[in-house]
TrEMBL record:
InterPro entries, sorted: SH3-like_bac-type, SH3_dom_pro
Membrane topology term: Single-pass membrane protein
Main location: membrane
Residues that span the membrane, as ranges: 175-197
Residues in the signal sequence: 1-20
Subcellular location: Membrane
Identification of the protein by name: TIGR04211 family SH3 domain-containing protein
Residues annotated as domain SH3b: 37-102
Listed GO CC annotations: membrane
Species classification: Bacteria, Pseudomonadati, Pseudomonadota, Gammaproteobacteria, Alteromonadales
Keyword Zinc (UniProt): no
Coiled coil stretches, renumbered: 105-163
Highest taxon listed in the record's lineage: Bacteria
Length: 207
């Protein structure tokens, strides 16, 4: 029963997460016209040269691949901006090709990581389902045993109360019987004493 509830719920969460990641991948990055943040990215679908100064006339240090995360070091000068790339190289690139949004490569990597994390969570939760089912079964068995024990205790208590009531009634009957017997015996003794005394008086009178 827990498995039937948990699996659809987990699949729904994963579907919503995947839809959110897909929406992010469809969004186009905004190209930064001026450098205001320290972190940025090279726009997608571009192979960009990095120069030693703010212009094409400066010596080329190398190339920067599309989607590369960068650190912005200086504000814009002559449509160029100073950066540090992922190889710790410092140079200048055209500011129009720098964006504050991660490229498709980074977002795809993030989406894959999120999917991997969701799968790991799903596997972890699925591995717990047998344990939860076993725990649920054990709790049901314990509940049944407790109900049976309660029934037995209630029956034992009822029997004890009935036995105590019967004993009390028996003792009352015995006391009544003893009292009645003593009363009858007293009456008989009184009658006998009366007869004996009357006969003695009669004998004494004859004497």
């Amino acid at each position: 029963m827990l498995k039937n509830i948990a699996l659809p719920l987990l699949l729904s969460v994963l579907s919503l997460s995947a839809m959110a990641e897909q929406t992010d991948l469809q969004d186009e990055p905004t190209v930064a016209q001026s450098a205001t943040d320290n972190n940025g990215y090279i726009v997608d679908d571009l192979y960009l040269f990095m120069h030693t100064g703010p212009g094409k006339n400066y010596r080329i240090l190398g190339s920067v691949e599309a989607g590369t995360p960068i650190t912005i070091l200086n504000s814009e000068q002559d449509d160029y901006i100073q950066i540090k790339d992922d190889k710790d190289r410092e140079g200048w690139v055209q500011s129009q090709f720098v964006t504050s949004e991660p490229g498709l490569r980074q977002r795809l990597a993030s989406a894959n990581q999120a999917l991997s994390d969701n799968n790991a969570q799903l596997n972890a939760l699925q591995s717990r389902i047998p344990q939860l089912e076993q725990a649920n079964l054990q709790l049901q068995q314990d509940n049944t045993a407790l109900k049976s024990n309660i029934t037995e205790l209630e029956q034992a208590l009822e029997a004890q109360v009935q036995a105590s009531l019967n004993k009390s009634q028996t003792e009352q009957h015995m006391l009544l019987s003893y009292g009645g017997g003593i009363g009858i015996a007293g009456i008989l003794i009184g009658v006998i004493l009366t007869l004996v005394l009357s006969r003695r008086k009669r004998y004494d009178g004859w004497a």
